[in-house]
Amino acid sequence: MNGLFCDWSANRGNIKGQLVMFLFRLAAWCRALPAPLWYFTIPYLVWYELTVVWSLGIELRYRTKVGPGLALFHGMALVVHEGATIGAGCTLRQSTTIGAKTLADGTQSACPTLGDGVDVGANVVIIGPVTVGARAVIGAGSVVVKDVPEGAVVAGNPAQLIRETKRPAL
User: Fold this and answer.
1) Of 51, 58, 134, 140, which is the most buried if we count CB atoms within 10 A?
2) pLDDT, tens digit, for every residue of 125-169?
3) Which of 53, 12, 35, 87 is nearest to 24 (CA)?
4) What is the bridge-based pairing of β-strands 152-155 and 137-138?
5) What are the contacts of 47-52 at 24+ separation with CB within 8 A?
C-alpha cells in the first residue's frame, strides 16, 4: 500500500483534498490487486463511487493514471475521464473537465495527458487527444483542444499561448 499518502503534502492545509486523494489511492490499490483478491474490495470501491463521485462531486475514477503529489483545490465539479493521464505534482481546481471528445463518427477520442507540474485553473476544459507539457499553466476558464508546450502559459477559448515560462522542474 505504498503511496497512500503521496499526495498529502501537496494538499497541506486542505483536509478535503487530502481525504479525497487518500480515498482515491486506496481505491486504486484495491483495484490493482490480482483477481480474485480485488473482488473482496468491491464494497469499498462501491462506497468510493458513492462518497467521492456522487456525494462530493469529484469524478476521479480509481482507474485513472495519476502521478504522486496531485493537489485538489476546491474539488467540486471536477471531472477526470478514467482514460486521462495526470503527471506528478499537478494541481487541479474546481469545475474542471479533463476527458475525451465525441468525434464526427460518434466514437470517443483518446484522452488528454498532463505532464508533471501542470497547474490547471478553475473552470478549465481539456478535451481530446492533447498533451499538456510539463510545468504548463492553464488559465481559468480556458478550453484546451490542442497540445500545450512544456512550460507554456495558455488561456482563453480556445486556449492561446500567452507566454513561455521558466518554471523549474519538479
Assistant:
1) 58
2) 999 999 999 999 999 999 999 999 999 999 999 999 999 877 666
3) 53
4) parallel
5) 48/23, 48/24, 51/23, 52/20, 52/23, 52/24
Looking at the chain, how many residues does it have?
Answer: 170
Q: How confident is the model at residue 75 (pLDDT cuts 50, 70, 90)?
A: confident
* Ramachandran quadrant class, 69 (left: phi over 0; alpha: psi -120 to 50; beta: rest): left
Q: Which CATH class is domain 9-150?
A: mainly beta
Contacts for 46 with CB less than 8 Å, ≥ 6 apart: none
C-alpha cell at 10: 501537496
CA 54 vs. chain centroid, Å, equals: 17
Q: How far apart are CA 8 and CA 75, in angstroms?
A: 15
Query: Per-residue pLDDT tens for 91-137?
Result: 999 999 999 999 999 999 999 999 999 999 999 999 999 999 999 99
CB contact at 8 A, 138 and 148: yes
For residue 41, what is its C-alpha cell?
Answer: 474490495
Q: Which residue is listed with cell 480556445?
A: 158
Task: Give the C-alpha separation, 121 to 9, whole Å.
Answer: 20
C-alpha cell recorded at residue 106: 460518434
